[in-house]
Amino acid sequence: MEGEPVNVNEFQELARQALPKMHYDYYTGGAEDQYTLKENVEAFRRITFRPRMLVDVSRIDFSTTVLGYNISAPIMIAPSGLHKLAHPEGEIATARAAAVSNTIMVYKSRDVSAQLVQRAERNGYKAIVLTVDVPRLGRREADIKSKYPKHLIILLLAAIKAVEVGVAGIVVSNHGARQLDYTPATITVLEEVVHAVGGKVPVFLDGGVRRGTDVFKALALGAQAVLIGRPAIYGLAAKGEYGVRKVIQMLKDELELTMALSGCPSVKDITRSHVRTQHEKFHSML
Ligand SMILES: Cc1cc2nc3c(=O)[nH]c(=O)nc-3n(C[C@H](O)[C@H](O)[C@H](O)COP(=O)(O)O)c2cc1C
C-alpha cells in the first residue's frame, strides 16, 4: 500500500503492520468461531439503497444533536479500553482527535470517574458515560414474545425496561462480537429495537461500521448516531492522533457523498425508504 490510506480497511492493514501480532489479534478478534464478528460487517453489505434523484444537494449538512450535544456528524467513538496497547499516547491521542473532530467519546460507567468527565471537559472533548445494566424483564414480555423471533426477545425487553427505568439513550451493541458468538449482527436488529423504544429515547448502534454508507444505513433504520470501535483503534495504531482524526474524516466524507448521491441534504432527510433490507428483498420475491 503506497501513500495515505483512503479507507478504514487500509487503516486496518497499516495497524496490522504497526502492532505486535498479539495486540493486533486482540483488537481485531471476536468470540469463538467469529460468526458474529463477520456478520456485523457482512449484514451491512446486504442492505442496498433506493436513491432519490432531482433533489437539491448543493449543500450537505450532516451535523446532529446527541443527548443535547451538537456534534459535527452522527459518528461517536466507542469505549474499547486498552488504547495504550495501540499507541503510547493511547487515550489522550484519541480524546484529542475526538475534540478536534467535534465528536463524542463514549465511556462505560465502570471505567470512568468524575475526574475523567472533568478532564474531558477541560480538554474540550465531550464524554458520554454509559451504564451497563441489563434491566429485569418488564410486564410487556408476553406481548413481545408473541411478535418477535426468539433471539430478539431479550434485546427488546431489555430496551423497553431500560426506557421504563429512565435511561437517556440505548446503544444496540454486541460488544464488537467479543462476547457471545452467534448473536445477530447489530444492524439486523436495530429496526425492531427502534420500534420497541417508540421514539422515547434515542437509539444508537455499534458493530461493523466501516464505511460512510454503513452510517447512512444505520440512520435510515432509525439510529440517531453510530459508534465506531476498531476503526478508531486502527487509526490510532497506524498514525496516532492524526490517524483517529483521519478515520473520522474519511467516514464523514463517505457519509457526505452517500447523502448527496441518495438525495438527502441533511440527516433528517434520511428515511427508512432510502434503504432496502434483505428481509424486504425476500418478501418481494414471494
Ligand atoms: C479491543 C476492544 C475492547 C473492548 N472492550 C470493551 C469493554 O471493555 N466494554 C465494552 O462494553 N465494550 C468493549 N468493546 C466493544 C466496543 O465498545 C464496541 O461495542 C465495538 O468495538 C463496536 O464494534 P466495532 O469494533 O466493529 O466498531 C471493546 C472492543 C474492542 C475492539
Short descriptors:
binds flavin mononucleotide, alpha/beta, 12% strand, TIM Barrel, 286 residues, two-stranded antiparallel sheet
For CATH, the homologous superfamily is named as: Aldolase class I
- The name of the CATH architecture is Alpha-Beta Barrel
Bound molecules: flavin mononucleotide
Number of domains: 1
Number of helices: 12
CATH-defined fold name: TIM Barrel
Task: Please summarize the sheet with the most strands.
Answer: 6 strands, parallel
Judged by helices, strands and strand pairing, the structural class is: alpha/beta
Q: Low-confidence stretches at least 5 residues in length (pLDDT < 50)?
A: 133-137
What is the total tally of β strands?
10
Spatial arrangement of strands, main beta sheet: 6-5-4-9-8-7
* Shape summary: globular
- CA-to-CA gap between the ends? 45 Å
User: What share of residues is helical?
Assistant: 40-55%
At the first level of CATH, the class is: Alpha Beta
- Strand content range: 5-15%
Whole-number mean pLDDT: 88
Compressed to H and E, one letter per element, the order equals HHHEEEEHHEHEHHEHEHEHEH
Radius of gyration: 19 Å
Cofactor: FMN
Protein name: (S)-2-hydroxy-acid oxidase
Domain FMN hydroxy acid dehydrogenase: 1-280
Keywords: Oxidoreductase, Peroxisome
